[in-house]
Structure formats: structure tokens, C-alpha cells
Write a structure and sequence with these properties.
The structure holds two protein chains of two kinds.
Chain A lengths: L23 H15 L16 E6 L5 H12 L3 E6 L11 H9 L5 E6 L4 H8 L5 E7 L5 H15 L6 E5 L6 H13 L3 E5 L15 E3 L2 H4 L5 E4 L15 H8 L3 H4 L7 E3 L12 H4 L6 H20 L6
Parallel strand pairs in A: 1-2, 1-3, 3-4, 5-6, 5-8, 6-7, 8-9
Helix pairs in contact in A: 1-5, 1-11, 2-11, 5-6, 5-11
Chain B lengths: L7 H18 L6 E5 L2 H12 L7 E3 L8 H4 L18 E9 L3 H13 L4 E10 L10 E6 L5 E6 L5 E6 L5
Parallel strand pairs in B: 1-2, 1-3, 3-4, 4-5
Antiparallel strand pairs in B: 6-7
Classes of the chains: A alpha/beta, B alpha/beta.
């Protein structure tokens, strides 16, 4: 669902719901701004007063540790007041609808919602129904999008590889259930990488995946050849309603990233994973903790990228 | 229009002399010099060289500390500030190009204090013009001038450094 809802009349960010529809210059602007927030770590007081007096509510209808805490830290480093609510699918347990929850919070003079929800389109729905001065950031909706994760991945790639134009990137694993993969593919295509591959068993690929602008491989050994960036995905067992896989060990044998398999990629290839990792299911511990892994760097970068996105979405607020 | 009576070499000489006096009067010991991006850095580079300061020049980008963020947004070209990790107890010479409302300096001081608590800060500017809005004053200036409300000073550089007087349209 591409939408202009995300941008104001001047083409500036208002909500951040999906990568779709955002152009290369805007994505680059986000990455550049995040860069200056990384530099802030030298300060004794790791805070800037950009969002002083603003109130941000993290609305997590689905469990998350990393994303929620990095959003919270990012908001605090921008000097905003933050309230984190873990509603874990039970906002409706007392019979209150999503819209009523939002309206109630809105009545408390909130300036921004950071939303995670198990239903695709939830953040989008909230953005459509909130007061015009409120910004909405999508922190993951169903199987649709996880745009801040994709941006922190892009940031990590740029930090190490400098330039996107010659890069070959493989996304490996449970593409079917992955909102991360969808957002990554859109961001990589917008930033103009040389090639994107998806490597997965047929049962874990959405229909017509090649129309997203990727090459499809069902064999890890073939797919890893010449890759600069390897983006692993978590096997989302909780979302699997039918028997899509024979067993975890069988999956590991065919699609798990081991040291031997990693040697097939370029020698300076980096290994990414959005977390949480299933050791021994999609990735071997030796690779996850090895020298080519940038998994913890991704986590640190998550704070800077979320600061950049929140600051950009809040600018010029109140004059719109 | 060029300001004939404001010659860059004269302004730099005046500022250097004023700074030398301040260093003695305020008893600055191995001061850290910091320039405010962008114009202030150009001026600071000259002073840094003229005063033979060995320690690298500190660079300050105040974009994240401005008080008009909710009106004009963040400058997309913001660059990380480069200050030494240890500002605690230091003597600092803070340099900007034009002192006008004082708001830039307010933002700069807030940012510096987020890096540590300096012993003292001396503010030096190439030109001080009228129109200050908060109680902050430069300690050293290359020149002090009074302009009309619709006039602005525009510095271009770094090589050559030139200063231009522009007339802007004042909103009714």
C-alpha cells in the first residue's frame, strides 16, 4: 500500500509507515541524519533537546524487546517524554476497540505514536484516524512492513560497504512471514543495489516474489556465490499455521548459515540478522558470533536511525 | 553591496588583537578553540593559526540545539560536532562569524555543556551587530556595527573570505 499519507505538501516526512513510495533522496537524508546522531556518543550528556516537551507513546500490541527498547532510548535521547505500553493483543480484552484506545491516548495530548501490531496495515489505519498534528511510526505491522528495521540495515550496510551501487545482497530464510524482508527489498531497490537474491524453500516464499525485483534461489550454495551482504531472517514458527517445514534440523541442514557455507560468499561479506536469532536453526553460533557478523552493530545503529526518523517526522509539526 | 568600511584583513587583525588581550585578562591557559559551523569555523581557522594553538580546532554543529526546530525543521546537512572528549575544566574560546540575536550562542553553549563543564568560555566574533534578543554578549569582536532592521550580513568563504551586506524583505 503506497501512500502519500506519509509526506506533507512539501514532500517532508510526516508519518513513517512503509518504505514504499519514499524516494532515494529521502532515504539518503534519513541515513545522513542518523550518521550525525551516531557521532553524539562522544557527549557526556547523550541527549539533544530536539523533541523537548513532546510526548511519544510506544504502542506495542505484539511482543518485542529490541525494537521497543531502542525506540524508547531514541526518544529519550531526543529529550521527548516516552510512555511504553505493551498491550500484547489484549487492548480488546476489555472490549475496547483500537480506535477507542487511540482516541483516549490522543486526549492525553500525545504527539507521536510508535506502533507495532500483528495485523498488517494497523499503523496505516491509526495514521488515517489520528489528529493531523500526530505522527505515526510503524514498528512492524503483521507481514507487511518493518521500515525502521530496514533503514537500520541500510545504515549498517552503508557504514561498512560505503556505496550501494555495486552491492549484491542475499536475503535468506522465512521470506513468507517476514515484514523485514519486504521492507529490506524495497529499500535496497530504491537505493539501487546491483542485485537482490532471496534464498528459501518454496514453502517459505510468497507467491510471485520475483515481481518485487529479486532473483529467487532454492539452493543456499548456489545463491551465496559472489554475495557482499547476507541478510538472515528468523524462522517465524509462531506464525506457521501449517506444516511448512519437515523439521528444524532439516531446515538447518539446507538453509542454515554455517562457517563452510559462508565461505562461498565474498571473503569480506557481512552477515546481518534482525534478531532474535534461533541459534542452530537459521544460523550457526560460530557465524552469529564470528568476525563477519554485524548483528550487534545493527542493534546500536537502531537507536541512531530511530532518532533520525522520529526527529524528521516531528519537524515543522504544529504549522501544518 | 560590499561593505567598503569593513575589510576582512582589518577585521581579522582587530579580532586577533582583542583575543590576545582577553587571553591575558581572563588568564586563559592552553585554551581549546571551537568554531561554530559554518562561518564561525572559517574565522576560527584563521585565529587558530594566528594564535599558534596546537590542539586541533573543535567544530560545533548546533542544528540539534536550535530553538526554532518546530518552525523550520532540521538542516538536512547537519554534520556531527567534533569536540575533544575532555571539556571538563577547560578554558574555551568560542568563535562565530556574526553576532546578532544571541540565539546561536545560547544553543552552542548548551551543546558544549553537554560535553562537560568548562572552566570559562570566551566568545569572539568577527562582527557584532545590533539586535540581540537574549542577555549574551561577545567578549571580543572585530567590529561593532548598527544596521537597519532589513539588513543582513552574509559571509562567504572559506577562500576568499568576503562579507556582503544584503537587504531582505521584512515580513509585514
Amino acid at each position: 500500500m503506497p501512500d502519500d499519507l506519509q509526506l506533507n505538501q512539501e514532500g517532508k516526512l510526516r508519518h513513517f509507515l512503509t518504505i514504499e513510495g519514499l524516494d532515494k533522496s529521502l532515504l539518503t537524508e534519513i541515513l545522513d541524519m542518523a550518521e550525525s546522531f551516531v557521532g553524539m556518543s562522544g557527549q557526556k550528556v547523550k541527549k539533544v533537546p530536539l523533541l523537548r516537551g513532546k510526548t511519544i507513546v510506544n504502542l506495542f500490541f505484539e511482543n518485542s524487546t529490541r525494537t521497543r527498547t531502542t525506540f524508547e532510548l531514541a526518544a529519550k535521547r531526543l529529550s521527548a517524554d516516552v510512555l511504553s505500553m505493551s498491550i500484547a493483543t489484549s487492548s480488546t480484552s476489555k472490549g475496547e476497540s483500537l480506535l477507542d484506545t487511540i482516541r483516549n491516548l490522543q486526549a492525553m495530548h500525545v504527539d507521536m505514536f510508535v506502533v507495532r501490531h500483528a495485523v498488517s496495515g494497523a499503523a496505516h489505519f491509526i495514521a488515517q484516524h489520528t489528529a493531523p498534528h500526530i505522527s505515526v511510526i510503524n514498528a512492524g505491522d503483521g507481514q507487511h512492513a518493518h521500515p525502521t528495521q530496514a533503514m537500520l540495515d541500510m545504515f549498517t550496510i552503508r557504514q561498512i560497504k560505503k556505496d550501494f551501487s555495486n552491492l549484491r545482497v542475499a536475503i535468506i530464510g522465512d521470506i513468507l512471514h517476514s515484514r523485514v524482508a519486504r521492507s529490506q527489498i524495497q529499500a535496497l531497490n530504491t537505493l539501487g543495489v546491483a542485485e537482490i537474491r532471496v534464498i528459501a524453500p518454496k514453502t517459505l516464499l510468497p507467491a510471485h516474489v520475483e515481481t518485487l525485483g529479486v532473483r529467487v534461489f532454492h539452493n543456499l550454495t548456489e545463491g551465496l556465490k559472489d554475495m557482499d551482504v547476507i541478510a538472515m531472517l528468523r524462522l517465524q514458527k509462531e506464525r506457521m499455521s501449517s506444516a511448512l517445514l519437515p523439521s528444524e534440523s532439516e531446515y538447518f541442514k539446507c538453509f542454515g548459515l554455517t562457517e563452510d557455507k559462508l565461505k562461498i560468499a565474498k571473503p569480506d561479506a557481512i552477515v546481518m540478522h534482525p534478531g532474535p536469532i534461533n541459534r542452530g536453526v537459521e544460523i550457526d553460533s560460530k557465524v552469529a558470533d564470528g568476525p563477519q557478523s554485524v548483528i550487534l552493530k545493527q542493534v546500536s545503529n537502531g537507536i541512531a536511525i530511530r532518532m533520525a526518523i522520529m526527529a524528521m517526522a516531528m519537524q515543522k509539526q504544529g504549522l501544518a | 553591496m560590499t561593505l567598503n568600511y569593513l575589510q576582512i584583513p582589518d577585521l581579522l587583525n582587530n579580532l586577533e588583537a582583542a583575543l590576545r588581550r582577553s587571553i591575558v585578562e581572563r588568564k586563559l591557559t592552553s585554551p581549546l578553540m571551537i568554531g561554530i559551523r559554518t562561518g564561525g569555523v572559517w574565522i576560527a581557522e584563521h585565529m587558530h593559526q594566528r594564535l599558534n594553538i596546537e590542539e586541533a580546532l573543535g567544530l560545533l554543529d548546533i542544528s540539534f540545539y536550535r530553538d526554532d526546530f518546530s518552525r523550520i525543521g532540521v538542516n538536512p546537512n547537519v554534520k556531527p560536532s567534533q569536540l575533544p572528549p575532555n571539556i571538563e575544566g577547560r578554558d574555551i574560546i568560542l568563535i562565530d562569524d556574526v553576532f546578532y540575536t544571541g540565539r546561536t550562542i545560547r544553543a552552542a553553549l548548551n551543546e558544549i555543556f553537554d560535553y562537560g563543564r568548562p572552566k570559562q568560555v570566551v566568545l569572539a566574533v568577527l562582527i557584532k551587530r545590533d539586535g540581540k534578543q537574549i542577555p549574551i554578549n561577545p567578549d571580543c569582536a572585530g567590529a561593532s556595527i548598527i544596521l537597519n532592521a532589513d539588513q543582513r550580513l552574509k559571509l562567504t568563504g572559506p577562500e576568499p573570505l568576503t562579507i556582503e551586506l544584503q537587504t531582505i524583505e521584512v515580513a509585514a
